[in-house]
Amino acid sequence: MQVTRSGSTPVDGGPEPPLRWVPETPEDELAAAVVRLIRLLKSLHGTDPAMACLGTVMRLGPIRISALAEALVLDISTASRHVSHLETANLLTRKPDPVDLRATLLTLTPEGIEFLRQGMARRSRVLRAATTAWPGSDLPTLTTLLNRLADDLGAIVDNGEAS
Fold first, then answer.
1. Phi and psi at residue 73, in whole multiples of 5°?
2. In whole angstroms, what is the distance from residue 36 CA to residue 34 CA?
3. Are strands 92-96 and 104-108 parallel, antiparallel or unpaired?
4. CB 76 within 8 A of CB 65
5. What residues does each domain of the chain span?
6. pLDDT over 90 for what percent of the chain?
7. Is the pTM of this model over 0.85?
8. pLDDT at position 131, please?
9. CA contacts within 13 A on the Cβ side of 76
10. Is 68 exposed, middle or buried (0-12, 13-18, 19+ CB in 10 A)?
11. Which terminal residue of the chain has fewer beta carbons within 10 Å of its beta carbon, N or C?
12. Given CA atoms 120, 123, 127, 132 in this order, what sign does their dihedral have?
């Protein structure tokens, strides 16, 4: 990665041109594209932790809060706060763990499933609008590559190599 000043050199003590980041490698360009994509998706959908929590419980559940925290890369107290809010909203429920009666497992309520379904439908509509002019094979190719990247990043995180 290289940081340069854009524009011309200041004259007579004028302001410095702004710094500009210039990607030097394909990995730099990918990192910049991922950050831009995340920012755009967040601007469209906000950073509602409910979607991440509910989606994880749907995908992995029934699940303990500790496993939810680990899957979301949150500390247990933050995950517990999110779960409490979702319980209050009747989107999640806790049930005794049949293997360890001291623990509880999180599951989605019917309202939680509907909340998640509506959120995913909103995201799908926006992505459909953004990709409507793409050639037919581009979207499946992008999906395959993003899933492969997510799997490979997940393996690095799981192995503790993310430094």
1. 55, 50
2. 5
3. antiparallel
4. yes
5. 48-125
6. 60
7. no
8. 95
9. 4
10. buried
11. C
12. positive
**Are 56 and 64 a contacting pair, CB within 8 Å?**
no
User: What would the 3-class secondary structure string for the chain be?
Assistant: CEEEECCCCCCCCCCCCCEEEECCCHHHHHHHHHHHHHHHHHHHHCCCHHHHHHHHHHHHCCECHHHHHHHHCCCHHHHHHHHHHHHHCCCEEEEECCCCCCCEEEEECHHHHHHHHHHHHHHHHHHHHHHCCCCCCHHHHHHHHHHHHHHHHHHHHHCCCCC
Determine whether domain 48-125 maps to CATH 1.10.10.10. yes
pLDDT digits (tens, 9 = 90+) for 26-84: 999 999 899 999 888 888 766 678 889 999 999 998 999 999 999 998 999 999 999 99
What is the arithmetic mean of pLDDT over 3-17?
A: 59
**Residue pair 1/24 in contact by the 8 Å Cβ criterion:** yes
Which pair of structure tokens corresponds to residue 41? Answer: 């998706």
Is it the case that residue 88 has pLDDT exceeding 60? yes
